[in-house]
Amino acid sequence: MAVMGVPRFRRFFRAAAGLDVDRDDLKRYSDFVNDKIYDMFLIAQAHAQANGRDIVEPWDLPVTKGLQESIHQFERLDEEIELQPLLDQLAARPPLDRAPSEEAEARLPRLAGGLSLALARTIRTVDPEAAAVHTVQWERAFHVFDLLL
Q1: pLDDT bucket at 127, cuts 50 / 70 / 90
Q2: How far apart are CA 85 and CA 109, in angstroms?
Q3: Angle CA(139)–CA(93)–CA(37) in degrees, nearest 5?
Q4: Is the CA virtual torsion 55, 56, 58, 59 positive or negative?
Q5: Model-level pTM?
Q6: CA dist., res. 9 & res. 12, Å (int)
Q7: Is the pLDDT assigned to residue 1 strictly greater than 60?
Q8: Is the pLDDT of residue 49 over 70?
Q9: Cα torsion through 58, 59, 64, 66, rounded to 10
Q10: Residues 144, 149: Cα–Cα separation, whole Å
């Protein structure tokens, strides 16, 4: 991730959940977003295949009500932080057997934003007293997402 993006991500985590992150945290965060988007597209591929399609459509993505709400909240928060251009780069298209439609691919940055907000707030929920995010909080939050996504 570009060095110029680090201050924006720090500001995002502070605004989203009152958490301080550092450069090393952002590498973990980046890996998390890419892993979860990949996981979501694996399920989307299965949905497309089950419906006899060769391409993944947006409705194939397993977006829950909570994630959809996080996407909307992220969009409102991002108006101040302007993180979206960085997420456009971060949310790279995962390798798939079935290609995503243009509309599905265009949703990747929004998914990354919703996952980002949900992650920050999950860390805050897992450890309400944390001021900064440490390895144990990252691991706990990642475990929660692994159980659910």
Answers
A1: very high
A2: 9
A3: 30
A4: positive
A5: 0.89
A6: 5
A7: no
A8: yes
A9: 50
A10: 9
Token pair 């919703």: residue: 114
Is residue 138 a contact partner of residue 21, using CB atoms and an 8 Å limit?
Answer: no
Question: Alpha carbon 139 to chain centroid distance?
Answer: 16
Residue-by-residue DSSP string for the chain: --GGGHHHHHHHHHHHHS-B--HHHHHHHHHHHHHHHHHHHHHHHHHHHHTT-SEE-GGGS---HHHHHHHHHHHHHHHHH--HHHHHHHSPPPP-SSEEPHHHHHTHHHHHHHHHHHHHHHHHHH-TT-SB--HHHHHHHHHHHHHH-
Picking from 104, 114, 117, 126, the residue whose alpha carbon sits closest to that of residue 64 is 114
Please give the mean pLDDT across all residues of the chain. 88
Residue predicted with more confidence, 24 or 128? 128
